[in-house]
Amino acid sequence: MIRITTILLLAALGQIMSATAVQAANIQITYLPYTISAPGTYVLTKNMSYPSTQGAAITIFKTIPGPVVLDFKGYAITWTGTTGDEAFGVFIGILGPSLVNTYPITIKNGTINGFLLSINGEEAPITKLTVENMSCSNALEAVAVAGISFSNINNCVFTLTNYEIYDYNDAANNTYLNNTFNQVGTPITIGNDGLALYTIIVPKVTTLP
């Protein structure tokens, strides 16, 4: 009886470990547009283009019951649409009621070329958002957020964009450190309560010739 019980326990443990390994496995993004609606680590597997005139190449719902990591793994997404269209590289939110996310959202290690907004988090509020080691170029706004708190936009490179970090209705406890700005309009814009309050914070600036 003891031996049988031990075997059953080992089998159950093996199933648990197997399930954990599956859950922890990276989820590959192999096409665009792509919607993230469940917790996990999502990784790009190649450079990809997004030709659509509307919508987002990658959408992250804010109602996800767990942390989300979007890791570009050094790859890029590039918009090939027509100037004047409204397409987004990464859109954080969900159409409908404006809900705050409960779990952290991380976007890192890649490149977003073109798009009206590289990363659109304007569907307020957002908490625990991290954008790091990203390169955003040729956009009206690189990272546009509203009502964020306890968030970080660090170690990014912004090139040929009008507004690099546009933070509307800042809810405090956010950091913007070690970002590089190349041939840009306004590096960091912070506005509160609908007032035209602009704070330009430039810890690190590089201007291309």
List keywords for this structure.
Pectate Lyase C-like, disordered N terminus, ten-stranded parallel beta sheet, 209 residues, mainly beta, disordered C terminus
Question: Would you mind describing this structure in some detail?
Answer:
- Helix content is 11%, strand content 43%.
- By secondary structure, it is mainly beta.
- The protein has a single domain (26-191), classed as Pectate Lyase C-like.
- It is globular.
In short:
By secondary structure, the protein is mainly β.
The residue fraction in helices comes out at 10-25%
| β-strand number | 19
Terminal Cα span:
79 Å
CATH architecture: 3 Solenoid
Global structural class: mainly beta
Number of domains: 1
Mean pLDDT: 80
Outline the low-pLDDT stretches. 2-13, 15-23, 194-209
- Secondary-structure element order, as H and E? HEEEEEEEEEEEEEEEEEEE
State the oligomer. Answer: single chain
CATH fold-level label: Pectate Lyase C-like
SSE blueprint:
Elements: H1 2-24, E1 27-29, E2 34-36, E3 40-44, E4 48-50, E5 54-60, E6 68-71, E7 76-79, E8 86-92, E9 105-113, E10 117-121, E11 126-127, E12 129-137, E13 141-146, E14 148-149, E15 152-154, E16 157-159, E17 163-168, E18 180-182, E19 186-191
Parallel strand pairs: 1-3, 2-5, 3-6, 4-7, 5-8, 6-9, 7-9, 8-10, 9-12, 10-13, 11-14, 12-15, 12-16, 13-17, 16-18, 17-19
